[in-house]
Amino acid sequence: MNKIGIFFGTDSGTTRLMAKKMAKLLGDAAAKPVNVNRSTAEDLLQYDALILGTPSYGVNQLPGKSTKVEDGCWEEFMPQLQGADLSGKTIALYGTGDQEKYPDRFAHSLIHLYDWCMAGGAEVVGQWATDGYEFEHSPSVVDGKFVGLVLDERSQSGLTGERLAAWIALVKPALQAKLTG
């Protein structure tokens, strides 16, 4: 596919809203964002450049019906992707979370997408500094950085626009390189 695929899971709509904002910032380079509960593995795997987003529900797991996401989410979608070969794909990740309410597991679901990408051989881009966040622990921090962009619409919504713009500027060159190369 000659566009950047954007796939997300959502319950309250925040992760979907962020996907739409990212698509707008990417312009013509982005495909229309797709909710994973309305998608297939083939839909996602057709792209060489991807942005994947997840909310954080439950405790250290992917969001889905077991975490009371009524329409399903990544928990139900990931089995379709088991064993997928991601070599040659460049993937950027983002997640949403609430650092005040869940400081001990902030944005915890993001690590599961990261682990899947790494196991499949993808190049993951867009690691994000933890500076400016206030939390105790996040499994989504690897080597001192978040494995992707983390957005907190409950506690730091005033920083979202700036963070989105900076992160898109960071990941766009690597993602666009997959479209031309």
Instruction: Please identify the oligomeric state.
Output: single chain
Order of helices and strands: EHEHEHEHEEEEEH
Low-confidence region ranges: none
Q: Total number of β-strand segments?
A: 9
- Percent of residues in helices: 25-40%
**In total, how many domains does the architecture comprise?**
1
| Largest beta-sheet characterization | 6 strands, parallel
The overall average pLDDT, rounded, is: 92
Task: Count the DSSP helices.
Answer: 5
Strand content: 15-25%
Report the C-alpha radius of gyration, rounded: 15 Å
Short description:
By secondary structure, this protein is α/β, with parallel strands linked by helices. Helices cover 31% and strands 17% of the residues. A hairpin with a 2-residue loop joins strand 7 (141-142) and strand 8 (145-146).
Structure characterization notes:
With 181 residues, this protein is an alpha/beta fold. The protein starts with a strand and ends with a helix. The strands form two sheets. Strands 1, 2, 3, 4, 5 and 9 form a six-stranded parallel sheet that branches. The longest helix is centred in the C-terminal third of the chain and has 21 residues. It contains five helices and nine strands; from the N terminus they run βαβαβαβαβββββα. The chain has one domain: Flavodoxin domain (Rossmann fold, 3-Layer(aba) Sandwich).
